[in-house]
């Protein structure tokens, strides 16, 4: 068990319990929370945990700020999308598309890293911003290949669609549930892989570079090489998450995988969860995506319950949900500057 | 005996200012060389040129017979150079043990080991613990560096140098800012390093008592140029040193 999580103990009982809760909830989501909306939320949590954790590998461990993370996410998603579109529906095409997307993401990340990280880390942030914007424009212009702004609806193998049904032990299992487990297990494997990476000798070097790059170089670590490797790994994993997302949604389009809003969400979640902890991605994503999906509903209920009072129901109007999400964010940064995980570990 | 480190006409210009001017010098094993000179004489810049933080405008640096003038900082470290800095320079939020373990890991070239767990490399941890034991920091092994006293932080820097096992040790004012009680511990450690016949030690220092007790040789830098080189007694007495330190007028008095 300790080997599975690479000896990275939660170091806090509450955190351990929270992680277990998220794991169990996600593992049994199709049976615990029936209904397509909750399954949609669960799958989104799985994928964003990986996406955010891969960003944490870069920011929290490597100390590298990138604005191109959604671009790599998109490369995986579009890899699957274009492969299914061109090669026809099939497991082979899907896998090939995912691998091609991951390879492209890795190659692009490596080139950007080698070109810009030599100079200064801030230069890297600006380059990624420019390239990500350029790629987003390119994707919307090349509509013949990418479907443009409308994106593409994907025809995935039938076994992963709701139309496919079979019975196991008296339970009806649909292809949608199989698809969910593809996402869940894929994301679990990716997350454990990252946990491995950050606790390896390589991960320790990244921490050292984040702490003091000057010294890391002086004691014999080639900082550029380590930063480039971290960038590449992070991009490949983000692309893998993107591929799973495309398969799950059976759709790929600029707004679902490339938008700046997604980049902002990633940044917010990393900060809320706690940078450089990996587990912060799990807790942060779970809270954030749940808030995103259910805050409106909750507020609607509260507004109705307080309808007799003055002003309060207006403040709690579901249309104001973004305001409250903002307030929650400011409060969490103010009270937990080291994130939820940092706070929980500190209180030990 | 072949020198471990040679600088040949080593020069760096910043615009019109020549910070280090054609310094040629060789450093042999089993020797501790003190580098002295007034503030702004180019001592730290000379160090930066040797360890690679600054690239030379002209001239060359040879380490163990190999030309390292174009090599990166980390490349020179692997070639046998170890440097402690003037201002404390550690990984502040990591533990004392991890600070040393990272050095051992760098030396063992295992940084690109992506799939094993860092703590499963027992040999690295044990080597780091042995070094901490040698400098008597074992009791603080699991403390975060930022929680350490200034003296202990400087001690840890020396520990990291020992863990690196270089052939050329470079110390830049190792006892700066330390209390009278703390300084001797560092000086003892440096004396221990000096006893290694395979290594050479370069020491930038202002305190004359330190120089007198440790140095086998003194070189004097003044306005970026090497102006004196020799036995401590002779160099200290020479007119050029008096002038460099006290100014021409005072030296005449």
Using brief descriptors, characterize the structure shown.
heterodimer, A: 348 residues, mainly alpha, two-stranded antiparallel sheet, 16 helices, globular, B: alpha/beta, six-stranded mixed sheet, four-stranded antiparallel sheet, 24% strand
Overall pLDDT score of chain B: 90
- Elements of chain B, N to C (H/E): EEEHEEHEHHHEHEHEEHHH
**Average pLDDT of chain A:** 91
Q: Structural class of the helices, strands and pairings of chain B?
A: alpha/beta
Question: Mind explaining what this structure looks like?
Answer:
The complex is a heterodimer of chains A (about 350) and B (about 250). Chain A is mainly alpha-helical and about 350 residues long. Chain A contains 16 helices and four strands. Chain A has helices at about 15-25, 30, 35-60, 70-85, 90-115, 120-140, 145, 175-200, 200-220, 225-250, 255, 260-275, 280-305, 310-315, 320-335, 340-345; strands at about 150-155, 165-170, 170-175, 250. Chain A has a two-stranded antiparallel ribbon with strand order 1-4. A two-stranded antiparallel sheet of chain A has the order 2-3. In chain A, helix 3 (about 35-60) runs antiparallel to helix 10, helix 12 (about 260-275) crosses helix 13 (about 280-305) and helix 12 (about 260-275) packs parallel to helix 16 (about 340-345). The radius of gyration of chain A is 21 Å and the shape is globular. With about 250 residues, chain B is of the alpha/beta class. Chain B is about 35% helix and about 25% strand. Chain B has a six-stranded mixed beta sheet with strand order 6-7-8-3-9-10, with helices on both faces. Chain B has a four-stranded antiparallel beta sheet with strand order 2-1-4-5, covered by helices on one side. Chain B is globular, with a radius of gyration of 19 Å. The interface of A and B includes residues 208, 226 and 229 of A.
